[in-house]
Specification:
By secondary structure, the chain is mostly helical. It folds into two domains: 41 residues; 364 residues, no CATH class. Helix content is 66%, strand content 3%. A three-stranded antiparallel sheet has the order 3-4-5. A hairpin with a 2-residue loop joins strand 1 and strand 2. The protein is globular. The termini are far apart. It is found in: Cell inner membrane; Cell membrane. It is an enzyme of class 2 (transferase). Pathway: Cell wall biogenesis; peptidoglycan biosynthesis. Keywords: Cell cycle, Cell division, Cell inner membrane, Cell membrane, Cell shape, Cell wall biogenesis/degradation, Glycosyltransferase, Membrane, Peptidoglycan synthesis, Transferase, Transmembrane, Transmembrane helix.
């Protein structure tokens, strides 16, 4: 026998037959599934990996992940906010108003708020969007009840002449923050239910306008004009994104603008704020209604391009009121300069843009509620950040709104993280659908 024939015979003996090859392949696949079952984390980013994660029948759920870049940006804003809140509040105990507080009092409470927010966000990340959709009307009713309770003496806590908080021990809960999330969910659910009637003003737009009016009256009774502006922006934005007739949208917008003008006209305090915003350096306002704005502008001026250095702000030393809450961006501007402020603005811009992309993907996948919910949260984060930054920079009149994810405030941090966890859940379900699963 020739040498070539010998090699050919050996190759034929060692080559598996088709049936044998199939059995070997099945065994390898089964072994791979067993190894994956052992190595696959039972919980990742707060979402248990198990059968039935939005799937039907015996279809096996697999971890499809979520937008890691978005999660990192959210975490980065939380971390920078924590550092800047500590920097802005460390000197507050020198003020007689806070003389019983330790230098780390606000830092400790802010850390607690972030921990609670992350835990709550992880829980909400595991809740399917269909559950949020079913619960949306009841969440809105709960928000209305809380807005009523906070107005009752003995339940609501008065701070700076405003009754906006319900003391809960570990934090002062602000129902207006919960109302923002409730309005996002309710408006998205409402548009899904009224999709076939969106051309009718009486049956599509008017009921939402009434709901918004009730929320507005409760918020103005606290008073909390800033929260009302944000909630109105959320409701109107979702109506517009949901495809409401342009003429009806314009009419409602004009009515809202007229309402805000009347509120300002008949409120001396708000009217003075507008005048102080226009001429903050006027001696009449510089030590009154324009005091915060002038010192905020001084802080930005001192920061220049690269800032005075972390912890080196002068304005936070009792010159700039509410430096750790409403005017945190001014402290960032003074200590980290134009570079720090621009980085924060770009981070918010990227985050909001990414949220809208996720919402658009959901709508393209015929998940209208999920898409409108994500885009409503994008309007909330972007709109509130824009207003806070505009107030700090003197572009908008002074208004008590915190910078999302960064300013000191327990319930604000909690609800922002929960809302963003819902967005990550939308992205998870989008990925599951695009890989052939069911959300």
């Amino acid at each position: 026998m020739s040498r070539d024939a010998t090699f050919e015979n050996r190759a034929n003996v060692s080559r598996p037959q088709p049936g044998r090859l199939r059995r070997m392949s099945d065994r390898l696949l089964a072994f791979g599934d067993q190894v994956a079952a052992v190595l696959r984390p039972r919980s990742l980013a707060g979402v248990p990996v198990r059968d039935g994660m939005g799937l039907s029948g015996g279809e096996r759920a697999q971890w499809v992940g979520f937008d890691a870049a978005l999660a990192w940006v959210i975490g980065g804003l939380l971390a920078l906010g924590l550092v800047m809140v500590y920097s802005a509040s460390i000197q507050l105990p020198d003020n007689p108003k806070f003389e019983n507080y330790s230098p780390t009092f606000f830092l400790t409470r802010h850390i607690l708020s972030i921990v609670l927010a992350v835990i709550a966000g992880a829980v909400c990340l595991a809740i399917p969007l269909r559950t949020w959709e079913r619960a949306a009307p009841w969440i809105f009713v709960a928000a209305l009840i809380l807005l009523i309770l906070v107005l009752i003496p003995g339940i609501g806590k008065v701070v700076n002449k405003s009754r906006r908080w319900i003391p809960l021990g570990v934090m002062n809960f602000q129902p207006s923050e919960f109302a923002k999330l409730a309005m996002v969910l309710y408006a998205a659910n409402y548009m899904v239910r009224k999709m076939d009637l969106k051309e009718s003003f009486m049956r599509a737009v008017l009921p939402m306008a009434v709901a918004l009016g009730v929320v507005g009256l409760l918020l103005l009774a606290e008073p909390d004009m800033g929260a009302f502006i944000v909630i109105a922006m959320i409701a109107m934005g979702i109506l517009f994104l949901g495809g409401v007739n342009g003429r009806m949208f314009l009419i409602v917008t004009l009515v809202l603008l007229g309402t805000f003008v009347l509120i300002i006209t008949f409120s001396e305090v708000r009217r003075e704020r507008i005048f102080a915003y226009i001429t903050p350096w006027d001696p009449k306002y510089a030590q009154g209604k324009g005091y915060q704005l002038t010192h905020s502008l001084i802080a930005f001026g001192r920061g220049e391009v690269f800032g005075q250095g972390l912890g080196s702000s002068i304005e936070k030393l009792h010159y700039l009121p509410e430096a750790h809450t409403d005017f945190l961006l001014a402290v960032i501007g003074e200590e980290l300069g134009l570079i720090g402020v621009a980085s924060v603005i770009l981070a918010f811009f990227w985050m909001v843009r990414r949220i809208f992309v996720i919402g658009r993907q959901a709508i393209a996948l015929d998940r209208v509620f999920a898409g409108l919910t994500a885009q409503g949260i994008g309007l909330w984060m972007g709109g509130q950040a824009f207003i806070n930054m505009g107030v700090n920079l003197g572009v908008l009149p002074t208004k008590g709104l915190t910078l999302p994810l960064m300013s000191y405030g327990g319930s604000a941090i909690l609800l922002c993280v929960i809302a963003l966890a819902v967005v990550l859940r939308v992205d998870m379900e989008n990925r599951q659908l695009m890989r052939g699963g069911r959300a």
